[in-house]
Amino acid sequence: MSKAIIVFFFVFFFFGCQMVEGQSNPTVAQLINNDIAAYSYAFAMEQVGIALYNFGSRTFERELYSKVNISFELVKLIETHTQLHATALRLAFVSEFGQQIPTPNCTYSFQSLNTFPKYLAAVISYESTAASTYYSLILTGYSKATIQTFASIATVKSKHTAYLSRALVDTPFPSTNQPISNLTDFTSPFAPSCPPVPAPRVLRAVPPSAFDTPSRNPVLQKRAETAFDAVNPSLAALTANDVESLKLTLALNSVELALLDYSLSRFTFANFIAGGYSAADFANLNILQRQLLTQNQQLTTLLRSQEYRPCSFNFAQITSVATFTSTAANLFDNSTAVLNGLLLRVYDKEFLSFVASLAGVSGKYASFFATLRSGAPFPRDLAEVSSPAAARSIVDAFATTCPDPLPSPKYYQVVPLETVVTPAPYQPTQGTCLVTDFLYDVPSWSSTHKVNFTSANSSLVVSNPPAGFFFLAPARYRGNLSAFYANGNGTVSVLYGAPATGSGAGLIIKGGNGFELVYQYPSVQSLYIASFGSGSWFIRPQGSNSTGTPATAADIVGVLTYVQCFLVKGSSNLKGFNLCDTAPQSGSDCANRCSGHGACTPNFPLGPTCSCFYGYSGANCATRVRSQTGRFKLPSKVITWNYGL
After folding, report:
1. pLDDT digits over 569-601, tens only?
2. Contact 183, 200 (CB under 8 A)
3. Is 609 helix (H, G, I), strand (E, B) or coil?
4. How far is 306 from 239, CA to CA, in rounded Å?
5. How far apart are CA 250 and CA 300, in angstroms?
6. For the chain, what is the radius of gyration of the CA atoms?
């Protein structure tokens, strides 16, 4: 096959958007949303692969494959793996985020692949680029499940590439390291009308030098099944852990290189030919040996003064080429699984990129030897992700003496400081409230749907309200509202003039820590009073459709400390919405309550309550405050208003 064709398709796939560098200390919400973007990107890539293989199955006869020394059955297995990878992404996404992964609405056309050589070139370019893209996506991942899923799929893509490359090009591993690509828009070449898929960013949470310890950290609670070795270690500890990861990588490389050195000196070219190797396979063994040596030198350079002295090995049990091939297949398969596990443990972006590149090429080595051993280069659709402890059995199988202990890097979880909150001691107040009066407040409200707001009889009125929409509370109901928790005494009160629309959550408070508080209205009624101490609030990851789990005090304060938005179930008539640090009281006397600078609501929610006009504040609206002009975009127009600070 013409290498020019292969190069053409490789370049054809490699255009599009760049991997975006993110900020150095993102919030957990940003990290989780970035994981969602990475899943969407990977899923769109798998959809292209599924369409590509479906096109090949319909277009080209199986006899064509044997003419280029490729198994039709194995290509069909690769097609099956692609479908299974899409399924794995779906299942992981539902498990992680509680919703279905977005599916790109695209129609693909492969008319340009009008010959079998062009189709095969596209296939090998797709598998190679998909593998490098998955390893690139690992650099963007935050959660353990995200990184594990991508690493497991990436290894299998690398094995696909090695098998196809062995038949179609000179070597199944053309470079020392698996290339880590910029994220590429795979849809463009074959679906130009397909909407672009935004690329996730490379984000790194910075560990705080000092942080509070809550009774329950929401990020750790979300992943309760995961046992971390430590949370928020110092940067020095993370750096030391990275060094341990590189040392363990060097330990694996040393046993692999020693095995190749021994076998290539022990057996002759004739022995390998007799053992089922072709001349090209023997040449690839020498290439592999040189690549391992280069990797060894790269690791030694990265470690600099952090010397690691490898073990001495004995390979006397390798008595034939067949034994060598089987041993090498198992060794590289197991080493790849350990390298995949290290991707969960390396913190530094450059080190992580290097280990990911070695994991990719290690999977190719495993595929090469597995093909020679049994003709089954990729026996599983998802690869193993092993802990560093699995390296012990790999090294001990051949080690005689080891001057240094085998490194054992830890799995750390880095959580941005702002997501770790300790509730402040409760200080009694005098019935502080954030009060809404819709005689004046309509311009500062919005909604999740396009609706028309009007003010009538001190109510927010919506004509023809859609089912399931939410009101979006004004800006003063955002930011740090933790004082309204008030040791569980705080309340959210909602008064409707008409029943709320749709089923599901009545109140949703979205926090900057990636989670949201949810309150379900217990029944259809006009007045709802949701106490933070009632036990009726639930917490869940943002974007999840699940009910969530009962929220603790730390959960509630963690969200209230960084409120991004406050959502209230929609209705055709909303009469009142208040956030208070005390429970409602009885009473109806409005006399002299508002100093002439506010509107009095007799019975909601603290008995007689003042809704101060703009420019005034305080329980009786007696305090004059400065004003500031702001702009708020309604669904249909922009309104300028004044609000008191």
Report:
1. 988 888 888 888 776 544 444 445 566 566 555
2. yes
3. strand
4. 12
5. 8
6. 31
